Amino acid sequence: MKKDNITIQDVARHAGVSMMTVSRVMGKKTNVKETTRRKILAAIEQLQYQPNVAARSLAGSRSYFLGLVYDNPNEAYLSQILMGALHKCTDRGYNLVISSFERAADGSYKIDDALINRAKLDGVIIPPPLCDSPEILRRLTDADIPMVRIAPQTLPDYSAFVRMDDRRAAHEITEFLINLGHRKIGFITGHPDHGASKLRYEGMKKALEDKGIPLRQDYIQQGYFSYKSGADCTENLLELEDPPTAIFASSDDMAAGAISTVHRHGLSVPDDISVVGFDDVPLASAIWPGLTTIRQPIMAMAERAAEFLMYPDPEKEKDNILDYKLIIRESAAPPHTS
Amino acid sequence: MKKDNITIQDVARHAGVSMMTVSRVMGKKTNVKETTRRKILAAIEQLQYQPNVAARSLAGSRSYFLGLVYDNPNEAYLSQILMGALHKCTDRGYNLVISSFERAADGSYKIDDALINRAKLDGVIIPPPLCDSPEILRRLTDADIPMVRIAPQTLPDYSAFVRMDDRRAAHEITEFLINLGHRKIGFITGHPDHGASKLRYEGMKKALEDKGIPLRQDYIQQGYFSYKSGADCTENLLELEDPPTAIFASSDDMAAGAISTVHRHGLSVPDDISVVGFDDVPLASAIWPGLTTIRQPIMAMAERAAEFLMYPDPEKEKDNILDYKLIIRESAAPPHTS
DNA sequence: CTGAAAGCGCTTACAG
DNA sequence: CTGAAAGCGCTTACAG
Predict the structure, then answer these.
(1) Which nucleotide is nearest to B33 (CA to C1')?
(2) Mean pLDDT estimate for chain B
(3) Which of A175, B95, B117, B262 is most buried by its number of CB atoms within 10 A?
(4) Domains of chain B (ranges, CATH numbers)
């Protein structure tokens, strides 16, 4: 392809300054007079200037490469992360290098030296579950590569992280059920190894407390985030003498399993029993009835993470909490008035 | 990060030649004496030389950028495409620019000029449904940007494409059902607008013919690739006087809907009725019973597409057909012997 | 706050 | 078949 593109020289000429000053504006340096900056910004806008990534990378001390490592059990989740990071990178003239890590039999990860040595990454984004691997964190720290972790379980202060408030989200969706009129709410917990499971449980518990509704132990079932576990737990719930009128499964996969079990019992969702989930995976809107659930801001988390790495600033907050959203579909309704 | 890496100069010095000759070897040019080439190759190997992407891109006539455009109806599908393309690009020192297109109200797409003008792409990968948009194809053709289409419905010969054999795959999974002992096989067609729907139908029909099993019109139901449509079609199938013993839904989403309906009727999958799908989306292994289905080589298709763009060669076949795979899980079994 | 010079690591186009 | 020169579009380091 021909290279008849607008260069930094064109912008400089247009704005009546030197190339150097344009470079400073592009790099968000502060030592440029405000009026000059505005003139340059106008020229950039008018010419639709886009810096040449290759030249930037070649000349500069940064590589304009960001890394994304993953070991992903969950495709939908990774896809969101990927899209978020990639979009931000493309927008900002960065490149994304993705690299997968295999978990060894002993549960540890071996690190790809190539990634660390050759790529000269400006930073790396680490989604779960890798973000909680001590080897990975130490290796990157040793190599002096900045990192941002996404939704980590533990929050040590040596790296930045982006997350959402699982506790508050679980509180909100429980409250939603209560406001619908439900008092008998079954809860299916997530995998005990995941930090979020505990937070979601706590949020649900707090919502009950706040409304003065007692927590019944027989309404709490231990799930593992899978469809099957959601189906099994629901089986248990429906066999109770006084079964719940609503079920809050702490993942969509489990909620989908719950719905299938309710149907198998010849009952209707939401007419007989309401079911809500958590995550808003594609499945949530694919099945019928559509799942009322919490949408995690996964893509936004990746975007924020990438941005954090692009503009290093020691003043920046290390803890970035993003907003979730309650998605109301058809799987929850007021309880049967019997 | 510091740039203390091995450069082409180091290799040249090591091999006792000029930088230029090394460059020729790297670029796979043929005009280099065999002994010289070997000396250089040895030096490259010994020094672990990796060309600097940025320098290459800046100096050369190629950009080492590939584009991936999408309009995303299906996250799981796109995610696979993305992973395949990204892996290949990362491996080969290429960069990937992704860009989404919004469909206008009239069904047409407006093209992002920025993508075409600024990025200087060496080529673009076009997955469905964009690969069948005349505007996009014409725009890219006009801009003289090479492209590879993935699984297009129509196969005009002005661009290369990568696909799988939907007809043969449908034939194979139908045969699988027949070999299990099924003679009464219901079929749920895909969305009439998708080219693959027809191919899958034809494959199923052919398999029946090959085994001398008559095609019953009441066993054919028109679906739309959605969970809901799969559930509804199955409702119709189960209401027949002589219902099928197996159902082949031409997408996994529809197969999942089919299973839910079978369960709602108090029947078991696969003991009472077998159900098979097509696609192998994440849902297929999430639900219970796991879906027997056809795995499309989506990631491999994207890899092949990227590779095609990296090594232009007029001799190359334009039609790249990749292998699918029959994935056997728990949703199909021999029919009830009654 | 702004600019002139040098150079990042390659490939192109030309010369032999 | 091989090489010396020029330059891709930026940023760094230095000077004012």
Answers:
(1) D1
(2) 88
(3) B95
(4) 8-51 (1.10.260.40), 65-164+298-322 (3.40.50.2300), 166-297 (3.40.50.2300)
